[in-house]
Model the fold of this input.
Amino acid sequence: MVPSDLRKTNLTVDDTLLVKRRLLVQELLAASEIKVANLIVTNEATIPNINMDGGGGGSSVPTNIVLTEGNQTVNGIKTFTSALTSSLTSNQVELGSTNKVTLNAVAPVASRVYSIQDAGADANIITSEGAQTINGATTFGTSITLPTTGGTPSALNYYEEFSSTMDFTSNAFAGTRTSNYTITRIGNQVTLDMGALALGAASGSAGVILSSTQFPERFMFTTGSRYAYMNGFSNSAQISGLVKVLSTGTVRYANGAADGSTFANTGNIGVNAYSMTWTIPGPA
Done:
């Protein structure tokens, strides 16, 4: 039998409690609160399955006592009010049964915090293997390296699409005329798509067409000029002209293949849309 002082609703033992009998273990576990400085359970008193409140609103379920040694299974949802710490230096978490997933955190040179941000929806973790899809806008804080064949991959560290307008003036027409343009920069390559300079009446004296605004500096090569051919009109006749882009971001149109050839100051003049590409900083 269990001594009467051990049948209290609240049990406190300041010294070692040696348990040898199964019945004593059952009655001890039935206590509302047990405080034991050191509990020794012998083989004669194997801890049995007992009914304890399983958190189901007062109902009880068959329950085992979980000990610090040996393999044990914990069922149901458990809530921890502090962080879980593993002293293992590899393969710290194992998920599944037959085909398992093992999570391995390599020991860092200093303590780290890896944060999983709220994706705003259900999401998957991106891994280094297998085909995967990344949804939403992704911003890289540094360059990325893409595969190549027969060469050495270079870091891709810049991409931008920029749209604006450019104003042009000339002795060959009055006032200012404007073209829309888009610049796309991928790494060190810059592609310009320039809209048409609308066909309009000439006046004044013959002259080249020169921009009074410039491209932003981040799209420009450092020295020299870059050239391309374009189609346009001078004296209402279609011409093949020259585009000259200066390192300052200024654009100049010439009537013909020679730099500086002027547009007529009679009839209508204009420039058709064109595209050209250069690299930065580029050769001199």
The longest helix spans residues 22-29. Residues 50-58 have pLDDT under 50 and may be disordered. Residues 4-63 form one domain. The first strand starts at residue 10 and ends at 19.
